[in-house]
CBS domain-containing protein
Amino acid sequence: MNQIVKDLMVPLSDYATIARGSTLYEAVLALENAKKDVERSVHPHWIVLVLDENKEVIGKLSQLTLLRALEPKTEHTAVVDRIAKFGFSSKFVAAMREENLHDGKAEDYLYTDPIAMEMKVEDFMLTLAENEFIDETTSLNSAVHQLTVRNRLSLLVTKKDKVVGVLRLSDVFSALIAAMKKVHK
């Protein structure tokens, strides 16, 4: 494969983004809207990028991040989080969490808490790590290696230190399958 990252990346202009200061609810809607637009690709977006006032990427929100932010936070959950650090089995910790998850709230209220919905995205977004970036001119072979070694589902694509797109594992894998099929006809 003689492709480079730029050939497979999703341009930033086509990606789900949200401004710093937006609420958790607005982030959920942005992700929902991005998933509706699957005509561009068979692989929907799984993350929302958070932009600052200069349209620079400062963080990201995955579906898992959003779910964690929506989970009710109680005094008991904080205690369980501290207990989990002392080496108790994951089964025991999970049972403790489940036992007190509802904390007297109705089941249908757990993920619709109006207070949680108004949290600002910068309060729970994932900040960017150094190993999440890849230059747009990097070979696809090198990109595959970086995705696997870094254990990432996506990398932010840069051009002169500015984020210009997202390289997703799903798109890379599709390209690899296509290349394999050409070789093994």
Notes: Residues 169-183 form the longest helix (15 residues).
